[in-house]
Structure formats: C-alpha cells, structure tokens
Design goal:
Layout (H helix, E strand, L loop, with lengths): L1 E2 L18 E10 L5 E10 L3 H8 L4 E11 L7 E15 L4 E5 L4 E4 L2 H5 L4 E9 L8 E10 L6 H9 L10 E6 L9
Antiparallel strand pairs: 1-2, 2-3, 3-8, 4-5, 4-9, 5-6, 6-7, 9-10
Length: about 190
C-alpha cells in the first residue's frame, strides 16, 4: 500500500491537552494501489468520565461518532468541501449476560470489561474515505478528524444535562493535516 504523497502524513497541529477526555493522537492517509481509494487511519485516546461509566453499567447505550472532512482551501471564498463522512459505534451493557457490547454498522461484539469494549473504537484502520479521482493533482487539501459522543441519541433528560455538564459532553478537538495528491504517472506503452 502506497502512502499518499510519498510520505506518512502524521498529525499536524497543536498537541492534545492533558485534561481532555477524548483526543485524536495520530492521523495517516494512504493510497490503495489496487483501486485508488484514499484510506484514513487514526488513533484516539478515550477516557470516559465516572458519570458515563456509571450510565453504561446501568444499561444506557452510548453512541460515539468519528467524523472526517476533506476540503480544499480557497483564497477568496469558502473552502471547497471535497468529501465528509462518519463512522458510528454503540456501546452498551447487558446485565443478564454481564457483557459490554460494542456495535457498529458491520459488527457487534461482546466484552467482559469496559476497557476491552472501548479498545476497538480507539483505532480506525484503512477506512476508505474517498477515491483519488475526487482530487485535483498537485493541489493542497486539508483533512480534519474528530471523535465525539452523539448527544442527540441520549434520552432527553441526559441531553439537557449534557448542555451544562462536561462529563456528558466528551469530544475531541478537530485535528487536521495537510496533504497534496501526487500526479498520477502515465503507464508506459
């Protein structure tokens, strides 16, 4: 698998603050040589508050979202948004089986501890977010990624609490990196 623009594209920007409950630790974009897909890989740090741990252990499902945006900066107008998307997880606890469940669009797995259940969310690998045809060669683009708790999926009383209580509003800052799509080599005749 080739790396986009010939080098690993690691996280740029300010370092994460020590007190944050969610952080984007690393970002990387790769180019799939097979189908020209642009693949996103990211590492997150997630430290659930005691209130969220208690809520999950009492059966309240929590929905976490990883969002990305890829845009092309423009000098005299708003940035041109090339693509955006998200990936969602549902974290829950089932008292009858004494298992934490982590579900996504493609799978649902059981875990004995909360830390084991959270671990798969902390690493996104080779997520196809675009195709090479969506980009203008030799043009600068900006990738931004963040992780957050989906407050809209909480029961209404908890949504109100989330407005004023930071324990119920974990989210990382948008972290970004700048990349340039290389010119595609022409095949030899």
């Amino acid at each position: 698998m080739g790396t986009l623009a010939g080098a690993a594209l690691l996280l740029q920007g300010t370092p994460a603050l020590a007190g944050e409950s969610m952080q984007v630790k690393t970002l990387q974009l790769d180019l799939s040589p097979d189908d020209g897909a642009v693949l996103l890989s990211a590492q997150f740090a997630l430290d659930l508050s005691a209130a969220l741990k208690d809520a999950v252990s009492r059966g309240l499902p929590l929905h976490f979202i990883v969002e990305y945006e890829i845009s092309r900066p423009r000098l005299f107008w708003f940035d041109d948004q090339t693509t955006k998307g998200h990936r969602e997880w549902r974290l829950s606890y089932h008292a009858l089986t004494r298992q934490y469940r982590l579900g996504s669009a493609t799978s649902s797995d059981g875990y004995t501890t909360l830390d084991e259940a959270i671990a798969p969310m902390m690493s996104v690998r080779d997520w196809p977010v675009a195709t090479i045809e969506q980009f203008v060669p030799e043009t600068e683009y900006i990738l931004r990624v963040r992780m957050r708790l989906d407050q809209a999926r909480l029961p209404k009383p908890f949504q109100i609490t989330a407005l004023t209580d930071s324990d119920w509003n974990p989210q990382s800052e948008w972290k970004g990196l700048t990349f340039v799509v290389p010119t595609q080599p022409t095949p030899a005749p």
